[in-house]
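User: Here's a structure from my thesis project, written as structure tokens. My advisor, Dr. K., wants to see whether a designed sequence matches the one we expressed. Can you design one independently, without my sequence as a hint?
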């Protein structure tokens, strides 16, 4: 398995065997829905020990990188459904005085997502998918093109910048302007993932927004 995890005392060997089954899947053999189910299952198989280790390693990959250090306005996410956890990066950004943002789903239209500034003491509530988010406040929201860096969750990725999301299209709709503004390079888009979420090559849909890179707990792609 490319980039496979080492087996540690607190991690069960059978979990690694399952992850090896999912490594470097050939997406041509599966529909998008099937690929999502398979990759979501792979990341859910990670133990709490492996999730904590992955979060620490992700932090080490990014915290001192120039892309993260130079960014002043950074959007992140709170993990759900086995996603790799970026909260160490969220807290690091806040300690350094950066403005941090979380995605907030609109009540209407329900297909729209905005980015709202978050502070360490803000209270969060579960949205319709059960993911914590701040109560909507337009005064704290920032246009997506005015962000410096977005750290995106994903279900699957390839080494060419392809990203497979959960299927709701929220990030793709929010970033659709990039297809119209060819010279617009903001924000930098970094997908965050576990190594077991990599596939050989993702089919690109017309609405897919390519990533600048994907960062896992092991390396940059």
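Assistant: Designed independently from the structure alone:
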């Amino acid at each position: 398995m490319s980039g496979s995890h080492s087996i540690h005392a607190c991690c069960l060997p059978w979990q690694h065997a399952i992850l090896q089954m999912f490594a470097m899947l050939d997406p041509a053999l599966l529909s998008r829905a099937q690929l999502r189910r398979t990759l979501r299952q792979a990341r859910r198989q990670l133990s709490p020990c492996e999730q904590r280790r992955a979060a620490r390693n992700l932090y080490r990959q990014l915290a001192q990188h120039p892309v993260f250090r130079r960014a002043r306005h950074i959007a992140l996410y709170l993990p759900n459904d086995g996603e790799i956890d970026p909260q160490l990066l969220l807290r690091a950004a806040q300690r350094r005085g950066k403005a941090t943002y979380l995605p907030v789903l609109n009540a209407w239209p329900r297909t729209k997502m905005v980015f709202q500034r978050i502070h360490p003491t803000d209270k969060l509530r579960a949205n319709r998918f059960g993911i914590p988010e701040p109560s909507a406040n337009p005064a704290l929201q920032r246009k997506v093109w005015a962000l410096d860096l977005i750290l995106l969750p994903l279900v699957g990725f390839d080494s060419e910048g392809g990203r497979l999301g959960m299927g709701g299209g929220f990030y793709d709709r929010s970033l659709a302007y990039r297809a119209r503004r060819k010279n617009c390079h903001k924000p930098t888009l970094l997908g965050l993932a576990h190594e077991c979420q990599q596939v050989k090559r993702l089919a690109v849909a017309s609405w897919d927004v390519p990533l600048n890179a994907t960062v896992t707990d092991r390396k940059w792609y």
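When you compare it with your expressed construct, this may help: Confidence is low (pLDDT under 50) at residues 1-16.
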